[in-house]
Amino acid sequence: MHATVRRYEGVDQSRTDELTKKVDQSLLPRLSKLPGFEGYYLIEAGDGVMSSFGLFDTSAHAVESTRIAANWVREEKLEMALPNPPKITDGEVIVHKNGFVRA
Known about the structure:
33% of the residues lie in helices and 31% in strands. The chain is an alpha+beta fold. It has a 4-stranded antiparallel beta sheet, covered by helices on one side. The radius of gyration is 14 Å and the shape is globular.
């Protein structure tokens, strides 16, 4: 499993609700259609910082998610709401545990 974390700084805090809605309505459907999609989380950290955390089966899928997210920002014309490029961390998940029981 691979994870991608994107940290956005300088987010226009007056547009947080708009960003959240657009992520849910137009970005998340695109990401969830990627092969190997395992999950996506958007974190409101306050002080103009938002982070996303995505889980994918392979590194290639994780890299593709970053490409999709960057295109999405341009297509949705969100450059003013997200004025700085995200700081991206990605890699293999080497330890994990969740509370979900799989049948």
